[in-house]
Design goal:
The chain has 191 residues and is an alpha+beta fold. 31% of the residues lie in helices and 25% in strands. The protein has a 5-stranded antiparallel β-sheet with strand order 1-2-3-4-5. It is globular, with a radius of gyration of 17 Å. The chain binds nickel (II) ion (NI). Nickel (II) ion (NI) binds next to helix 4.
Length: 191
Amino acid sequence: MAALYSHPSAAGILRESTAELRSMAVLDILQFPDSRLRKVAEPVSDFDQNLGVLIDDMIETMYEASGIGLAATQVNVHQRVFVMDLSEDRSAPQAFVNPVISVLDEETDVRQEGCLSIPGFYEDIARPRSVRIDAKDRTGADSSATLDGLAAVCVQHEVDHLDGKLFLDYLSALKRQRIRRKLEKAQKQSA
Ligand code: NI
C-alpha cells in the first residue's frame, strides 16, 4: 500500500477532495470456464474518477492475489484496461488503458504462463519475444514502450484477456478440456 502513496494519481487526489473517503477494494476474479471471460472489452472513452477507482481496485486485487498482471475483463468490467507490476517488491504498479500491441520481432520465446482466472495451472506458451505497446494512462496521456522478456509476455497475455482470449487457447483442445474438467470439479467442491 505504501508504494501506491508514493505514486499519487490524479484520481487519488480527486478522491481526497471529496467528502467521503473511499478505501480500495479487492474485487472478485472470474474463474475459467466462466463465459464472461470471453467478452471483448470496449475502449475507454472517459478518463474520469471512476476509471481511477477501477484502476486502484484492480491494483489492490492483483496484489492480494499475488499476480503480476490483471485485466479488467477478469473482474467482470469489460473495458480496455489492465494493470501490471513486475517489480520484486510490488512497488511499481502500471496501468494501461486502450492498449495496442505491435509485434517487433516475430521470433517467439517459450515461457511458462499462469493466470489468476485459471488457478493452479502453468503451461509453456510461445509468443513473439519483442513488442511495442501504445496505451493511455489513467489521465488519458499517451505512453509507449518497447518490451521484451517477461514484460512482453505479460502485456500480450493481458491484451488477450481484453479480447476474450486465454492462454489455454494456445494449447490443444484435449489439454484445455482436461484443465476445464479439473477446474469445474474444484469449483463444485468449493461451492
Ligand atoms: Ni490472465
